[in-house]
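Title: [Solved] LpxI family protein 3D structure

Original question kept below for reference.
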Amino acid sequence: MAVAVTSDSGKIGIIAGGGQFPLLFIEAARAAGRQVYVVAHRSETDQVVAEAADRSCWVKLGQLGKIISFFREHGVQETVFLGTITKTRIFRDVLPDLKGLTLWNKIDSRQDDAILRAVAAELEREQITVLESTLFLKHLLFPKGVLTRKKPNHGQRRDIEFGWRHARAIGELDIGQCVVVRDCSVMAVEAIEGTDATILRGGALAKEQAVVVKLRKPGQDFRFDLPATGVGTIDTMRQVQAAVLAVEAGQSLLFDRDRMIAAADAAGIIVVGVEERPDGSLDY
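Solution (posted by the thread starter after getting help):
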């Protein structure tokens, strides 16, 4: 659901994880005339992201009170969640402050969406509105259609449809966003380890010709944790001789499109953006 920009202060906050998304957002926000205030996570966020901001502060995972204090100090009333957090860190690197610990103890489920929704709700109770992560960057949404020179054959289309149903099912359970299949058999299901590890595990079992299907979770909030792919995804697939990457069009992010497609073509990997019609059939 779209969230309208409500502030006229010209300031916007970023709660930043790893990857290039925060830096791309800073550039786009500046072009839109916004001042950018970054909360950077230690061991996750690139130093260049913090340096590119008008102001920044570094936090450890769980320091919610510090985030709120930083935004209050600088009059920031809007923020976005951008970038990746290594999910396994919740078992070893969390150092919550009192605010973070209080919230953590209230969360019944430690799944992605439950945690992020709880943090967003707490921010909004503090009059800090959480906006869509694609604000200023709609052009990064994955397009529909075959992006590479090669197209999926009949068997690969069957695998995409098979994988789509299973990826949708694990998404409904808030387990993950990606499955790896071959010959209508599930090779791997994404959980806390992330997409790249899932591709390596599933691709090793498939031996070759694996089909990777990555979808947005049903009802997923556009404010955070959208599926994302890029050159790194293709590099991982190449290591296990995977054949096809099928991604939900308009519901996920595509970084470095030209480089990604060139890498896929060089590796003979098919990349396709897929839409689900109202009747459940797939269109690409």
